[in-house]
Structure formats: C-alpha cells, structure tokens
Design brief:
By secondary structure, the chain is of the alpha/beta class. The protein is 45% helix and 10% strand. It contains nine helices and six strands; from the N terminus they run βααβαββαβαβαααα.
Length: 214
C-alpha cells in the first residue's frame, strides 16, 4: 500500500497465517482483509487484460526478458494488468510462464542477480509509480485471460483432430503455441475471429472423420 496498490491475489499459498502476516504488515493490515485466494495461476489471471511475469528466466521457449525500466516506459495504463511474482524458493514453472505475455527482469549485478520476493515486489511497485510517460494510444476492446484460455481449448481441439497433436508431440509445443497467441496481442474482435476460425476447423474435421469412418 506504500505505493498506492491495493489488489493482491495469492495463488495456492502454503502455510498462510493471517495473524503472522498482520504483525509484519503494519499499517497495510487492511490489505489482508481484501486478499483474493486462487487455486491456480490460470484462475488468478482470468479477468486481466495483460499478464506480466517478473522473472529473469527465459523459460523453455527461450524468450528474451524485458528490463523493468523499459517495460514501465512502454506499458499501457489502460490495460488491467496482472503483475505475477514467482514463489520465494522456486520461482515459476514453465507452464506458468507460458500463460504470461511478457517476462520482465529487474536489472542487477551479474554475479548477484537474485532478489528475494519482498525486494522484487518493492522495486517493481516503486518503478511503476515514478510517473513514466506513456504513449497515447487508440482505445481498444481487449480480451481477458479467460478468453485466451477458451481459444487455447479450441486450438487444442482443432490440432488434435487434424493429427498435428499426437502421442509423440513434444511436451513444450502446446505451451509454445499458447504463448505465440498471447504475443500476437489481439484485441477482443480479433480473438473472436480466431475462435471462429478454429471452431470451424474442428467442426469440418469432425465431419470428415465421420464421413471416412462411415
């Protein structure tokens, strides 16, 4: 709350203790009463228009992280953005990183690049409140993460029916495709078009399979 942020979502927290948290929260104790708990990251980000991971990892798809100052300078204040931090001990899983549009890293000395969770949160929120100038942009109707997850399901159905996905498909491929769709940065109309395209593919392929088997 020191920097004006008042929304906090915890994903499947282990050993969360409201009393212990209130002792260290000081004047931010009211924030503890509004915490939202989610069972998974996909559930937590469902209603956000942009999802950013604070991580120095490139993930299994070898994406290049953007530095925190660069991201703050270009970010859109019109988007409802989820800033996602990994766990203190192990950070993110590859599956979690695949759900994020972009990875943002906090610049640090190469010999000591790791920060603990509290430090990372503090630095990110401080940088966000420095008043970075944003470029005016045209108003766009943006999809939420839940819409993208629906598209993921349609794509998986279509690619499975086409034979592109099969028992020998490498594990990272579906995640890579999901991330490609997110990096396309589609607006809500474009996403509806893509959902229609893959939905049509699935229906046509099912009819063809029925014809050949019949």
């Amino acid at each position: 709350m020191n920097f004006g942020f008042s929304s906090l979502i915890l994903v499947a927290p282990r050993n969360y203790d409201r009393h212990r948290a209130s002792i260290t929260a000081c004047q931010a104790a009211p924030l503890l009463d509004t915490i939202i708990f989610a069972d998974s990251l996909s559930e937590a980000i469902r209603d956000f228009e942009d999802v950013i991971a604070i991580s120095g990892s490139q993930g299994r798809n070898h994406r290049q992280p953007v530095s925190l100052p660069d991201w703050c300078a270009k970010r859109s204040e019109q988007r409802r953005t989820a800033i996602v931090f990994g766990t203190e001990d192990s950070g993110f899983t590859n599956d979690q990183l695949d759900l994020c549009r972009e990875m943002v890293t906090i610049p640090a000395h190469l010999q000591y690049p790791s920060l603990n969770l509290a430090q990372a949160v503090l630095l990110v929120l401080y940088e966000l409140t420095r008043g970075s100038v944003t470029v005016p942009e045209i108003q766009r109707e943006l999809p939420v993460a839940g819409d993208l997850q629906q598209l993921d399901s349609l794509v998986e159905t279509a690619l499975t029916a086409s034979g592109f996905y099969h028992t020998g498909t490498p594990t990272p491929v579906p995640g890579a495709i999901a991330n490609i769709l997110r990096r396309a940065d589609m607006d809500a109309r474009e996403l509806r078009i893509m959902m229609g395209v893959f939905g049509k593919f699935s229906r046509v392929l099912k009819r063809l399979q029925t014809t050949f088997t019949g």
